[in-house]
């Protein structure tokens, strides 16, 4: 997944739950840091500062709050989102916003299956995948 881009990340972000698994494996293969992007996590459960954003409607028409501890993604980091599946692109768009809120550089989103409903996002994010839904 890390080889889908020319730029090597310093941090891989993976949304819970399957994105965290695929993201952690990608980060380990690249020898870089990994950050789990948590869903509906209350930052009050610890004393660390968090960055959080709410998604546009996802594939189930839900708005999900994603976030991570602020100190895990820093200005100067190059960040790649890794996930298993892209459908509406809401998770990837929110991840990009979180990365930019942290002052880091967004590389793009890499996923196993591209099932994007909005083709413009492939270019805007950019999103690259191992498989396209039409080939499954």
UniProtKB/TrEMBL annotation:
The chain crosses the membrane at residues 12-35. It is found in: Cytoplasm. The keyword Chaperone does not apply. Pathway: Purine metabolism. Residues 5-121 form the Phosphoribosyltransferase domain. Keywords: Cytoplasm, Glycosyltransferase, Membrane, Purine salvage, Transferase, Transmembrane, Transmembrane helix. GO terms for molecular function: adenine phosphoribosyltransferase activity. InterPro entries: Adenine_PRTase, PRTase-like, PRTase_dom. The keyword Transmembrane helix applies. GO terms for cellular component: cytoplasm. Homodimer. This is Phosphoribosyltransferase domain-containing protein.
């Amino acid at each position: 997944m890390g080889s889908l881009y020319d730029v090597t990340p310093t941090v891989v972000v993976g949304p819970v739950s399957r994105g965290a698994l695929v993201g952690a494996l990608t980060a380990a293969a690249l020898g870089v840091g990994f950050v789990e992007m948590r869903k509906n996590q209350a930052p009050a459960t610890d004393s660390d500062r968090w960055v959080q954003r709410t998604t546009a409607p996802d594939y189930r028409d839900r708005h999900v709050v994603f976030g991570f501890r602020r100190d895990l993604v820093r200005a100067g980091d190059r960040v790649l989102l890794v996930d298993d599946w892209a459908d509406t692109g809401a998770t990837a768009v929110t991840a990009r916003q979180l990365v930019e809120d942290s002052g880091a550089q967004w590389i793009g989103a890499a996923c196993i299956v591209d099932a994007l409903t909005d083709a413009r996002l492939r270019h805007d994010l950019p999103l690259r995948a191992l498989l396209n839904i039409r080939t499954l």
